[in-house]
Amino acid sequence: MFGRALEYASEWLRVAFALIELEFRRLMHDRTEIYLRAFQPILWLVLFGPVLGALKAIPTGGVPYIDYIMPGVLIQSTTMVAILFGLIMIWERETGVLKKLVASPSPRMAIVIGRSFAAGVRALFQTIFIIPVALIIGVQVIFNPLYFLLALAVIFVSAGGFAGLSILVASALKSRERFIGLGSAIMFPLFFASNSLYPIEVMPQLIQWFARINPMTYMVSAVRGLMITGDLTGLPADIAAILIFDIVIFAIAAKSFSHIME
């Protein structure tokens, strides 16, 4: 029994890592999409941050406003990449690639997690492109290699969870046009109803309640503590919330994955 379990785990990991490697090779071949998607967060940092920061109307605990919003802008950018990852699944369905993958004996959960963390690879490329720009415009980042690696891990896992959500949505919609509209409808409420641009305490009470169950709040909080403030008191709770979000989404997406072919 132990040998069979070990064989299953080995097959599970092989499938997941193969899908992650495939995405890495795709990005090495063509990184144009990463450059184009980095344009919007750079605008947030170059235009929105300095303008709103000059008003000094938002309490940031003594942190310069452009520094305060950098983690939120970074998470918004990387999760948008992950949310739109479902478009690839729809395209693969239309071209027949996904049919072969679904028909294979590979575990559904391994396929979902492999595909989801493939989006995490895209998120890391996006991060590595945005952070130097943030440094150039004056964002003060903590230069601690361990903190930086932990922040990258948080971004990678967070993007994986949102990519799992995009797979779930793609399984239900099956249409690129519908998916694009719903992707934006999911992303922007989560972004604005989080602590990305302002503290939760300044929000109306109803939105505060939503922000406290919003997974993006915990993702931003973790990255902000690791890269900007150095305050890690809430990091264990942030990581726990992110992992719970990922596990729940992966479980639901794996169960509904086969419906994408219907």
Structure description:
The protein has 262 residues and is mainly alpha-helical. It has one domain (2-261). The protein is built from 12 helices and no strands. It has helices spanning 2-29, 32-37, 39-55, 65-83, 86-95, 97-103, 108-136, 145-173, 176-192, 205-213, 215-229, 235-256. The chain is globular. The mean pLDDT is 80.
Counting helices, strands and paired strands, the structural category is mainly alpha
Gyration radius, rounded: 19 Å
Total DSSP E strands: 0
Q: How many strands, what sense, and barrel or not for the largest sheet?
A: none
Flag low-confidence runs. Answer: none
Order of helices and strands: HHHHHHHHHHHH
Please report which band the strand proportion falls in: under 5%, 5-15%, 15-25%, 25-35%, 35-45% or over 45%. Answer: under 5%
Structurally, the number of domains stands at 1
The total of helices stands at 12
CA-based shape: globular
What's the end-to-end separation, in Å? 35 Å
* Averaged pLDDT: 80
Helix content: over 70%
Please supply descriptive tags for the structure shown above:
262 residues; single chain; mainly alpha
Give a brief outline of the structure.
The protein is mainly α. It has 12 helices and no strands.
